[in-house]
């Protein structure tokens, strides 16, 4: 059975803004880590924060679908981890122009690192949510709000 972590978050922004938070180095530094290096292929993160210590030197972006998906071959040499991170972007509903749902699926994980990445992705996505939403957690009932749909009454 495949070992994976799946976390999701809803953001008060549009698809382009959400996608750029994962593809532009300066944007990643706002919510994930100050020690980040990304370009067209590479995805290097160094984090020494709270209980997290990781270095993804050697990781590569293997696929991008504009405003839809990013796939990263996630490598951590110190932990002998060679896994895959898939980040999916979608609007929260057909009418929600200012709400994006992001799903992060981290696959092929060794069982002993499941808890680490479960907490890492939860806290990372919470940090991203706070950047856009502050304390607001967008629930299903919020998807009809005027500020989410962009429509006035």
Short description:
The radius of gyration is 16 Å and the shape is globular. The protein is built from four helices and eight strands; from the N terminus they run E-H-H-E-E-E-E-E-E-E-H-H. The strands form two sheets. Strands 1-8-7-6-5 form a five-stranded antiparallel sheet, with helices on one face. Strands 2-3-4 form a three-stranded antiparallel sheet, with helices on one face.
List strands and helices in order, with pairings.
Elements: E1 4-11, H1 15-23, H2 25-31, E2 35-38, E3 43-49, E4 52-55, E5 60-65, E6 69-76, E7 81-91, E8 100-107, H3 114-133, H4 146-149
Antiparallel strand pairs: 1-8, 2-3, 3-4, 5-6, 6-7, 7-8
Helix pairs in contact: 1-2
Describe the structure.
It is built from four helices and eight strands; from the N terminus they run βααβββββββαα. With about 150 residues, it is an alpha+beta fold. It has one domain: START domain (Alpha-D-Glucose-1,6-Bisphosphate, Chain A, domain 4, 2-Layer Sandwich). It has a five-stranded antiparallel β-sheet with strand order 1-8-7-6-5, with helices on one face. The chain has a three-stranded antiparallel β-sheet with strand order 2-3-4, with helices on one face. Strand 2 and strand 3 form a beta hairpin. The termini are far apart. The model has no long low-confidence stretch (mean pLDDT about 85).
């Amino acid at each position: 059975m495949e070992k994976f972590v799946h976390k999701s978050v809803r953001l008060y922004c549009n698809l382009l803004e959400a996608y750029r938070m994962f593809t532009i180095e300066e944007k990643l530094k706002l919510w994930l880590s100050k020690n980040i290096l990304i370009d067209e292929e590479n995805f290097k993160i160094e984090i020494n924060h709270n209980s997290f210590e990781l270095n993804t030197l050697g990781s590569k972006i293997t696929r991008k679908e504009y405003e839809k998906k990013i796939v990263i071959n996630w490598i951590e040499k110190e932990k002998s981890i060679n896994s895959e991170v898939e980040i999916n972007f979608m609007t929260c509903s057909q009418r929600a122009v200012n709400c994006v749902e992001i799903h992060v699926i981290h696959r092929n994980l060794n069982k002993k690192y499941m808890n680490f990445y479960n907490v890492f992705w939860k806290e990372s996505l919470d940090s991203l949510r706070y950047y856009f939403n502050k304390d607001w957690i967008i629930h299903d009932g919020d998807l009809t709000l005027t500020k989410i749909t962009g429509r006035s009454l």
